[in-house]
Amino acid sequence: MHVDKREKRVMQITVIVLGVAIGALVLSMTASHKSLPSPAGRIRPEDVRSTAPFDNPGVRQVGDNEYEVIMIAQAWEWVPNRVEIPAGSHVTFKITSVDVIHGFRVPDTDLNAMVIPGQITEVDVDFDEARDFTLLCHEYCGIGHHRMGADIVIVEN
Ligand SMILES: [Cu+2]
Question: Is the CATH code 3.40.228.10 the one for domain 41-155?
Answer without folding.
Answer: no
